[in-house]
Amino acid sequence: MRKKIKLTVGGLIILAGALLLPSCTASFCSELDKAHFLYAFDYGVSDYYDHQIEGAQQVFPGNDKIYYLVNVPTSTASGLGKTNDAALSANLKTPSHKYYVKIDQLVLETALKKAKGDDVDFATVNFADAIEALDTYGYLKFSGEKLWDNWNDLNQKIKAMTTDPTHDISIDDLPTYDYIKIYQKNMNSLIGSYRSCIAISTDDYGYYGYANGAQYRDGDKIPVEIEAKTWGYAWKKGFFEGLLVFPIGWLTETFVRGFKDIGVMGGVAQLLAILLITFIVRSLMLIVTLKQTASNAKMQALQPEIAKIQNKYPNANTNNYEKQQMAAEMSRLYKKNKINPLSTLLVMIIQFPVFISVWGALQGSASLASDALFNLHLSDPINVVLFEASNWSNGSAVAALILFIMMAGVQVVSMLLPQWLQKRKAKNIPSMGKNPAQTQQQSSMKMVTYVMMAMIIFMGFTLPSAMGVYWFVSALFSLAQTLIVEKINKNKSKKKGN
Length: 498
Description:
There is one protein chain. This protein has 498 residues and is mainly α. It has two domains: 2-25 and 233-497, no CATH class; 31-228, no CATH class. The protein contains 18 helices and five strands. The protein has helices at 2-20, 31-41, 80-89, 97-116, 127-137, 149-161, 177-192, 231-237, 239-261, 266-301, 303-312, 320-336, 343-364, 382-386, 390-394, 396-426, 436-462, 465-497, and strands at 47-49, 57-58, 67-69, 203-208, 222-226. The strands form two sheets. Strands 1-3-2 form a three-stranded antiparallel sheet, with no helix packed on it. Strand 2 (57-58) and strand 3 form a beta hairpin.
């Protein structure tokens, strides 16, 4: 019964960790970044052409250099499908075809004015001008002093057109208040999971939106512009964001750019950058972890003496006097050999914010959202890649699965190796019968190890692929550290024996 309770508690800890982890570090995405994300998912329903085709109409009266055509139903276009499904299920009226065309027209005019000035002559605009303006300034559809301000203003302009007989649009064509609430909620939810906004220079990053999109975009997902972030911006986000997350993110992109500059391919450059980041972080943490590893080795060497003390007090688990006496003797033994039994807990307390910061930096790095390694984007969570059917045909799911298996396997070995070494040494310790206190202590230690191991593997499944690479290399680092310390202690023991 007690074992089942422990397993249940362990499972709850893993689940809580997975749910709370994403909120441990702040998103670096600015309002401007979010506007770019929104536009990638809803750039409108109008497809633009540089010549007349069947059904196409002139975008601007008297201008035969650019035409538009709505190739897909507005109910499924861009980011509107989910919104319209939700609206229909709630018995809400959806906007008409005329409304979508009208808002596309206003967005194009806004982008052209920004690109060419307020006095631009729409009659002279050609296809290339329009597409360049939309690619550069289409995000203005959703930006403003606050996110959505411009979109709300555009809707007010369309509403004003309903009272002007020169415009062929009525109030019934417009979205209702309830529809607008659903649309904005769904769009905000759609981009809410994107956090890759740590960039050292304003540039295009990542691949966003929907495949099979507009013809003039070649039907592909598109990169979006992410504005450069500063250290001052990071400190405003939080203490650890400024102290660790931004510096690690800055280093990641610097390394990626450096490798690309010498001709290394994008995905490989990202992998090498993560390897360097892992090496730097683990090297800095050596000051803490090496001391803990050495302390664990000392504990293993003291197992014969610890076993003698524990066997002196076989009822320590139920008898308070024996429990106190055993604790006092153990304390004297630890003090004599300069061992702090709480060092493991202290190391975990120090390591946790470092781990969280590395996770925040790798997930937030804009450079890791661009390019791919075996078609795997390192900013994508492994579970998301595996559960997307199309990823199995392009090889990214296979790459994600191999990465997860390698990470989980090495992680298990690195965490269980100290126990295996201790068990091997315990064979040389004379058995004096079972001690309930000793058995309970060993069981508790194993439980902590298994819970931590399961948590890391589970999180490795749900966090960005870059974290899988980090954990894999970090586990190799831990393995090497444990084996080296074990070798050093063996040599010391041999010298003492001589």
